[in-house]
Amino acid sequence: MTVRRADGGDARTLAILAAKMWETDAETLEAEFRGLTGSAEAACFLAEEAGVPAGFAQCQLRHDYVEGTDSSPVGYLEGIYVAEAFRRKGFARALLGACESWARERGCTEFASDCELENRDSLRFHLQMGFAEANRVICFRKDL
User: Could you tell me which residues come within 8 angstroms of residue 123 by beta carbon, excluding any fewer than 6 positions away?
Assistant: First the structure.
């Protein structure tokens, strides 16, 4: 297993992996990942096994208030995905570790994330990785 920081040339691979997680079209994500890989405020990491993409993680610095934190900026896990064939082999832990190291190198003393209330797998992952639940929230909207 190798984990490395992704660059602009990895945008398509990142988009394909992310599309599986977010259940969307990879084409709509590719340009976004190209921009993220070139940003000083964000990082994407790829995990590979024998050259085969196994998963990715995206993290960013958040300067606005992050629920449950006391500092700024806060490193934030925006997304993490490991393909089914590679699960339960330490890929997610390694990707998260790369994100946390990246945030530490930028002066962050806290790292945060979120998941949907009904996403039990994500909740379990976060708790197993040492995150503590900070809050539960239901958001509302209406058309004007």
Answer: 115
